[in-house]
Amino acid sequence: MKRLFAVLAAVLMLASPMVLGNSVGADVDVNIETEDFEPLIWMCDERVVLDDNVEPGKLGTDTLYERTQNYAFEGEQIGYDVLVMDKNGINKISDVYMTIGDVQGVGNDIEVNCRESTETNFDNCNARIGEEVLSVWNPAVMRHYDCLLTVETVDSMYGEYWVTAEVEDLDGLSSTVDENEYWFFNPVIAISVDGALTFENVRPGTQSYSDTILIGNDADAGSGVMMDMFITGTDFYDSSSSGAMCPTTNQLSLEQFAYYAVNGAYSTMGSGDAEGYVGIAYGNSFSTDLYYNAEIIKTGPFGNVLAPGAEMSLTFRLDLPEPCNGDFDTGSIYFWGEAI
User: Fold this and answer.
1) Domain containing 127: what range?
2) Report field, pTM of the whole predicted structure over 0.90
3) Boundary (domain end) residue, out of 185, 207, 235
4) Is 13 helix (H, G, I), strand (E, B) or coil?
């Protein structure tokens, strides 16, 4: 009986289902695609316009605080502090540079590379992605750069350009700061003089007045060049052998001349004599000394400044000494314009 039972039990076991455990599993294909993040760039609050090293401006500072229009000359500089971000990793940034071109946006001519900065404060960069304002510095995806564009000679930089900073990554994706700027580089500056100084048949010991002449800012149209205006002169002489004398030698002193000028709401009235006429400083070349003694109109912050196409009027007065003999036709009165 024991043998039969054992055989029967074995048969029953063979007829029952086989169970090896209490769980089963299966795999599924996984595909994760990481975004090729387009790098972002923001301009921070450290933006400057710097003077060249040739001739100091009126304020005598490196920063051109007096420059109120978008024009710049050879040697002057535009500087940005920019923040760059790439969520794929900051080491994926291939280049950061400043460009100039005819249109806004990416792809303009690269003029200067920017250099990495150790700055980690980005409170004044207004960095955001859409509506998300970035508030935590992450050196793995963020970096500051200093950018400094120097205006080159007129041979390579003349006219109007869009200026911006641009970032590019290893995949060729790029973007610019939102604040593109429009600049006129190396504008031609010139002064126009409409009229002539002629004093005819002046009686010694009397005062004589010239016709009014116009002095204008004849810089490139559209350049926005604001010009500070100055006047200097020399003594006068008789070019012929006439035995001139006025009053003690053959020389008519510049001190015998004065002028009255008007520019909009400003004039020389109040800074000269009772008629508003002021004297002329000696000089036959431009120097920074003219800032202090040769401005045409010395009153008000804007009275001596001309915009492109604008003019100021000047009337001259001659106090001819007595005695005086001769025709004084050799000598000069100079007008100077300094781009602010």
Assistant:
1) 40-185
2) no
3) 185
4) helix
